[in-house]
Specification:
There is one protein chain. By secondary structure, this protein is α/β, with parallel strands linked by helices. The longest helix has 12 residues. The strands form four sheets. The protein has a six-stranded parallel sheet. It has a five-stranded parallel sheet with strand order 7-6-8-9-12, sandwiched between helices. The protein has a two-stranded antiparallel ribbon with strand order 2-3.
Length: 268
């Protein structure tokens, strides 16, 4: 296992790791700048479906961070990639916000609002989710459409709050349709991990996944052979780790600890 400063590429979650709401988290600017100076490669890997990649990039730059569009991946974008590659003839009923639809359109994935025409129901976080949308999704599934979750996040952390996320909508649709989700695209899926590694031509052991949520960020690494660093600025706390069978390789209080010569490993 390399020391934290010895990896070739660093994968950073966004919400809870880089920022919380509109607040840049401690140590982020300095740590990323040092990694850039050292010639390290990086990706920003988010499970968001409410911001496009371009909007994520604008937010990073607005917080004073250097980034480029090809360094940003979202669950919405990855879902669009998945459908364009695996089901090019798909006709997708999208339950989500503008970002989900925009990424589908960017990848030329056909969309429909008619449940009788849908081959897939793609669900992302939707702050206007309602009875009518459950009915549309349920009807599409009863007509044979496959249910796809853009990410498995039950809620999204905010600064001092949390809001329901994609998985809450997915479970409502499953209950109404008496069906089950067929595919989950976002972190920690193997599809998400493999596409990112493929795009960067990186070897798994030469990358470090840094994030604040065990069930998505840490499991992306643990289940896909990528070393992991839990940053304790978001969802998962040090005490939470006692509930899980596999610990992350590192646990750090904030991102400014990442490049310490001997990163602190969580020992229970």
């Amino acid at each position: 296992m390399p020391e934290a400063a010895g990896f070739q590429a660093y994968f950073f979650d966004l919400d809870g790791t880089i920022f919380l709401g509109d607040r840049l988290l401690p140590g982020v600017r300095e740590t990323l700048a040092r990694l850039r100076e050292q010639g390290k490669e990086m990706m920003f890997l988010s499970n968001t479906t409410t911001r496009t990649r371009t909007e994520c990039l604008d937010k990073l730059r607005g917080l004073g961070l250097e980034a480029s569009l090809d360094e940003v991946v979202t669950a919405a974008y990855m879902a669009a990639v998945y459908l364009s590659e695996r089901s090019p003839a798909a006709n997708v009923l999208a339950i989500g916000e503008h970002a989900l639809c925009a990424e589908l359109d960017e990848r030329h994935v056909r969309r429909t609002t008619d449940p009788a025409e849908a081959t897939h129901v793609l669900v992302g976080m939707d702050r206007r989710f309602d009875y009518g949308k459950i009915h549309l999704a349920m009807t599409a599934m009863r007509n044979g459409a496959l249910l796809i979750a853009a990410n498995p996040d039950p809620y999204c952390p905010l600064d001092g709050d949390a809001v329901p996320d994609t998985w809450s909508m997915v479970k409502a649709i499953e209950a109404a349709s008496e069906g089950t989700v067929q595919t989950v695209i976002g972190k920690p899926s193997a599809y998400y991990a493999n596409k990112v590694l493929q795009w960067g031509n990186w070897r798994r052991g030469h990358c470090l996944m840094v994030g604040d949520r065990y069930e998505t960020d840490m499991l992306l690494g643990i289940e896909n052979g990528i070393p992991t660093a839990l940053v304790l600025t978001g969802v998962t706390s040090a005490s939470d780790l006692e509930r899980y069978p596999d610990e992350p390789d590192y646990a750090i209080g904030s991102l400014d600890e990442l490049l310490a010569l001997q990163p602190r490993r969580y020992n229970g």
